[in-house]
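Researcher: Structure for this, please.
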Amino acid sequence: MASKPKHKMPIEERAKQFMPFAALSGLPDALAKKEKVLVPKIELSPEMEEELDRQMHLLSKGKMATVVYFQKGEYIKITGLVARVDETSRLLQIVNTKIRFEDILQITM
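Model: Predicted structure, token format:
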């Protein structure tokens, strides 16, 4: 029995065999979105400090508040119920997130 000549694969198809395989498709995009731009902490002006102090005195447990605060080189915005305002420890707790007073940039209710 004579064997048939093998069908030759076009060069374009052969090249596809050796193209890189992305086992985790979407990973490069996800990593790019996760990249952070680190920023320095903003020094509050006396007027900003006064307004922040006024807002802090209006906070009480159970009130809804939005807080912008500094953490690890970035500003984070959180909205939720105030769980605790501890003036002795100088901590504000929104739901389960504890925020040091000196890291707060802005509070809105």
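Researcher: Any notable elements?
Model: The chain has three helices and five strands. Residues 46-58 form the longest helix (13 residues).
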